[in-house]
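step: validate -> pass
step: tokenize input -> pass
step: predict -> running
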Amino acid sequence: MEQAQAGKAGIQRLADRICAVFVPAVLACSVLTLAGWLAAGSPASHAFSAALAVLIIACPCALGLATPAALVVASGRGAQLGIFIKGYQALESSRAIDTVVLDKTGTVTTGQMTVTRVLAVPGVSRADLLRFAGSVEQASEHAVAAAVTALATAETAPLPDAGIGEVLAEALPADKARVISDLQAGGRPAAMVGDGVNDAPALAAAQLGLALGSGTDVAIVAADMILLRDDLGAVPDAIALARATYTTIRRNLAWAFCYNVLAIPLAALGLLNPLLAAATMTLSSVFVVWNSLRLRRSPLTAHGQFGAVSSSISV
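step: predict -> pass
step: emit ->
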């Protein structure tokens, strides 16, 4: 969390570049306002008041707060949802995602074997076969034994329709990375969800890598976000949070820019005194913070649904 909040997204760097030009421009505008009023024969007190009002009302607090305020709130909201953001670049890149690629074993599935079919020889009932097999296997720690014991204890419930449109079986690490590369080369920004060492190349190649918190260290290092919830609903939630954050940042920047464009001329014309300019500047910053805090109550996608993307693939 601390590393994420200390980083800067690309849009934050853009805001910093704007401020780097904006501040000298405002200083020049203030000097011109002072010179203009003095040249027009106005009292020095009025000229200094107008120039000071320009400086106060154009203070780029709102512009500077527009991005970090939204990003800090988004990281906190993500933590509440079991989504840890390793860097703010992940939020920015997530907004273009339209395809999610998921590792199967340990990510979509539990990573544990299950019995899918029981065939009994003539004269032996299914119930007797399961009872005898379960009695023999219950003391064993083997994965197959655990599957037999689980079925003997209770019949397995049918799996829900987990919404994946395409499945690529027996994919090696290089195959998974190639799937991601092919998707992105075809103009389909892809996110990769995985938990194992064999998912690391694909996680690194994807525009957005999401690793399960229970996954290997290699997968976590290669990913951009870490999903601590044992629920694939965290994937669309993460993408929806990223998109909501980016929209909030754009609104904050638009407000801050429009505020300065409209307020500076009023101050230069002497229509705002320094006290009123200070109050207006403060209200502008308060609006940016309030708009960012709305992310804490932002409705995300339906639980467990991949509504934030157009397609999903399992490899």
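step: describe -> The chain has three domains: 2-78+243-297, 82-110+161-238+306-314, 115-155.
step: cleanup -> pass
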